Amino acid sequence: MARPNAAHLPAGVRKIARAGRARALRAKDRATDRATLLALRAAMPAWRESIPESAWPAFGPRDRRAVADVDDPVSYFLPLTEAWRLGPVLRADARNSVVLLLAAAGRPPALPAAERARFFVLVSVDGSDIPTPPELPRGSRVLRVPQPTAGQYLALLNSCAAVWAAHDGDEERLAPWILASRLAGVPVRRVVPGARPVPQPRYRDEPGYGGGPWGAQRRRTRLDVLRELSTATAGPSSAPGGDDGDTAGPGASPADEQNASSAAGSAEADGPPRALVRESRRILLAGHDLKFTHEIVAALEAGGHEVLVDQWEGHNRHRTDRSRQLAADVDVVWCEWALGNAVWFTRNVPASTRVVTRFHLQEILTDFPRHIGFEGDRHMIFVGEHVRREANRHFGWARVKSSTITNAVRVPEQAALGDPHRIGMVGVTPARKGLATALDLLEELRAVDPDYVLHLKGYRPTDYAWFRERSTEQAYFQEQYRRIEQSRLLRGAVHWDGYSADLDPWYAEMGVALSTSDFESFHFTLPDGAVRGAVPRSIAWPGSDLLYPQQWLAADAAELAESILPLRDPEVHAAAVTEAAAYCRARYATDVVVEQFVGALLG
């Protein structure tokens, strides 16, 4: 008997079925974790004192380097998802109390007189045998890791709350490891023997390190070290709008590297003129949401290529016969989003047909990417370098052909300077967009200057159907509504401007474009605002420093306020807008990005 089509079942039945599948998957995950834990104990009775090879995640070439090589800040930031952990060895529920101890030359690190932590990871940076510190609290558990690779150390940092190193330790040996820890956003404490313990802050166990006060501490740690590196090297990210041909320095965005590569390629191309032969191609665009493809399709058609469209009904719903018929006679298949469309085409078209998939962000929280095939002419394009690194680690794609090409930003012909007292924020739903942080910022600003107002653009939370089914989201926004009504500094200063497709008139009135998200893949608000007359300011969500200048970023609301208040001076505001617009036009303008994408698409 043929399996019934779930789409024809009543909505209530489909909802119950989805909930049942979710519970079954959670039970399966718990059972797998438990089985792995028992297997590790049986195979290695002393597993608590070392980490088995099977517990480490899949590593790419960069992750196999020595930690002493920390000249690439792109490689050192905490992943966005929860899955990249050391499984049953360092579980998520222990993460708040795990401390990593750095030691060298056979000397145990000094510890405070008393500390809440009961789980320690003892890292020997030079591979020497480190004895157990005598000051460890009674009943503590200790894992020993001699001289881990860069990837292993990053995995440890993702599982620990803080790093401790002796105040009088071997500076030459410890310095690279301390630098790597700070680049990953993990606070480092230089411990003095007998010092009073410092309370360990707890944080929300959410994807990445965006949430709660602990997230602010991690952001501040990474920003501080990046600013130190930028001051020392004067890299491109410390001078937005500078010469695009410069070599990308610490903290520079992937766009800087791409521009440098393009400049080098142009130099190599100097010499006798050569005729370029352009061959028209038939390209099939497949996906459920094609809103980010219009400029690229227009450029392809202007270049003489034919673009066919296979519009899917959802992440994994389509007419198989139509997809097969369209793919039968094309040169390239372009899968927009790495979901069910990428799985189906990579496994159902010949290996000789080029299949290019664009990976945004939401896919990393699904299981579809695990089933994408890479045999033959396959290529993955990521919208952010931080997303590419995380996906490679999360799905074990160390050998996958991939590249990073950001989203394209439409640059208007003219832009007007907005009012510096108007703070504009596009999108407040879901909670990870950080409305609470935006309200904290507004209170900081209005305590100094009551003329500041916050404009929220987009749908309200209650406009989304899924909102009624998420109690945590409802509680979060009810608290923010209560704050807006009761706070003396917020009352009358928060304006809901509603949704509109054309944002240009709205941006024309804003003086600051604000992002307070816990994490994003790109976040159009920042570059869109920059090219339309607003100064971009953002919480330093994971990976933001790989895309945008550090001057735009802050660890928390108080630091954001410090960078926004000087913009009240019209000359300072105008100069900041000019600088930010030049930065975005050189890297994210539609013509720049489309040219890169078309080149990667056609191979």
> Helix tally?
16
- Rg calculated over all Cα atoms: 26 Å
Question: What is the averaged pLDDT score?
Answer: 81
Question: Which descriptor suits the 3D outline?
Answer: globular
Would you identify the regions where 5 or more consecutive residues have pLDDT less than 50?
43-47, 201-210, 235-277
Counting helices, strands and paired strands, the structural category is alpha/beta
The level of helicity is 25-40%
Strand order of the largest sheet: 7-6-8-9-10-11
State which percent range the strand residues make up. 5-15%
Largest sheet: 6 strands, parallel
Strands, total number: 17
Amino- and carboxy-terminal Cα gap:
45 Å
Organism: Zhihengliuella alba
Protein name: Glycosyltransferase family 1 protein
If you had to describe this structure to a student in words, what would you say it looks like?
- The structure is a single chain.
- The chain has 603 residues and is an alpha/beta fold.
- Helices cover 35% and strands 15% of the residues.
- Strand 4 (162-166), helix 3 and strand 5 (188-191) form a beta-alpha-beta unit.
- Helix 6 crosses helix 16 (590-602), helix 10 (435-446) packs across helix 14 (557-564) and helix 15 (570-588) packs parallel to helix 16.
- The longest helix is centred in the N-terminal third of the chain and has 33 residues, at 11-43.
- It starts with 10 loop residues before the first helix and ends with a helix.
- Mean pLDDT is 81; it is low at 43-47, 201-210 and 235-277.
Write a compact overview of the structure shown:
By secondary structure, the protein is of the alpha/beta class. The protein has helices at 11-43, 150-159, 171-183, 212-233, 254-269, 294-302, 320-327, 340-348, 385-395, 435-446, 471-486, 504-507, 525-530, 557-564, 570-588, 590-602; strands spanning 98-103, 119-124, 141-146, 162-166, 188-191, 282-287, 306-311, 332-336, 354-359, 378-382, 402-404, 419-426, 453-457, 494-498, 510-515, 535-539, 553-554. The strands form three sheets. Strands 7-6-8-9-10-11 form a six-stranded parallel β-sheet, with helices on both faces. Strands 14-13-12-15-16-17 form a six-stranded parallel β-sheet. Strands 3-2-1-4-5 form a five-stranded parallel β-sheet, with helices on one face.
